[in-house]
């Protein structure tokens, strides 16, 4: 009889503990909708477990992507479709100059809308916080090597086309801080100082936002830039972060 009572009490305690854990999980997830795969993407929310996949899923839905930029207050110009065949792009946007935002240099770059959406989240949630934490100064501009380029991967004559062929990628080369300091991937990736720590922080932070993030750790072809893209790999597709 006593044994049965102890067994019943243990089961009741286990059930109570399970209910408490379920309740805590529900409260936590309700406060962080970005961690759930079925909730709508909101660029005003912190980066969540499924933010990167939701950003990549915007490819093919330019209207939804631009609506997200509008709600987040991003100033941009939607570009006309261009290119042809494997190099056709239809959702490129160009960011307008904004005194409160990081400027792109050169300014004329026009990546796909999902890349721009990820770039803005990267700016707000990763790059500027890292710059303030490490340097005590914000980033003023980002120097890049471009976005759209009708070519195959590594410029080969055969094989798969690069994400650059549809403006679904951008190559980031350096960061200029408001105090005039420049941090470049080529010159500052190696080492133990602030610049190397900053570059690794922004590289790692990009991995939660882009389908592919390639840095000097990947190969020598990326010794001077970060390759960031929004390759479509399906809901359960792999993501690359090197």
Question: What does this molecule look like?
Answer:
The chain is α+β, with helices and mostly antiparallel strands and 242 residues long. It folds into two domains: 1-31; 42-241. It is built from six helices and nine strands; from the N terminus they run αααβββαβββααβββ. Strands 3, 4, 5, 6, 7, 8 and 9 form a seven-stranded mixed β-sheet that branches. Strand 5 (169-177) and strand 6 (182-184) form a beta hairpin. Helix 4 (113-135) packs antiparallel against helix 6. The chain crosses the membrane at residues 12-29. This is Extensin-like C-terminal domain-containing protein. Residues 64-242 form the Extensin-like C-terminal domain.
Summary, kept brief:
The chain is of the alpha+beta class and 242 residues long. The chain is 36% helix and 16% strand. It has two domains: 1-31; 42-241.
Question: Which key features would you list for this structure?
Answer:
single chain, 242 residues, alpha+beta, seven-stranded mixed beta sheet, 9 strands, transmembrane, Extensin-like C-terminal domain-containing protein, transmembrane helix, membrane
